[in-house]
Amino acid sequence: xxxxxxxxxxxxxxxxxxxxxxxxxxxxxxxxxxxxxxxxxxxxxxxxxxxxxxxxxxxxxxxxxxxxxxxxxxxxxxxxxxxxxxxxxxxxxxxxxxxxxxxxxxxxxxxxxxxxxxxxxxxxxxxxxxxxxxxxxxxxxxxxxxxxxxxxxxxxxxxxxxxxxxxxxxx
Length: 171
Hints:
By secondary structure, the protein is an all-alpha fold. The chain contains eight helices and no strands.
């Protein structure tokens, strides 16, 4: 697992996942303006891959090859959970799949409306740090933890220092 440590760090804290989300959002925005679901299928495929493994992110991997992980953490790093993206992507696959099915089965207005939710989330995640799928995943995990079905915290969760001045003082 040591070989994945640097990759995971680059994906979690570098700009790769932001670029990945912007590309996914871009395909959905083009689908809206073109009225063509084929663009939505691209995002659906990218998200389906990520629901299998958070490391199957072609755009983020290309960006991670060229951009090193940041030396200091940002406040948004507190809430990022690479493993949690699988759950968020699985939720998104369900919503996008239902949306595409609704559009294809003649319920265009409802299907496009539902497709607007993941589109908005993919735009908000890299810009302001809010991901609706992540919020639903975390809330669901919390409910499962309260009833004793899941662990309270994600595997590998750890504290990070975002205040570099006080972090230097503790060393």
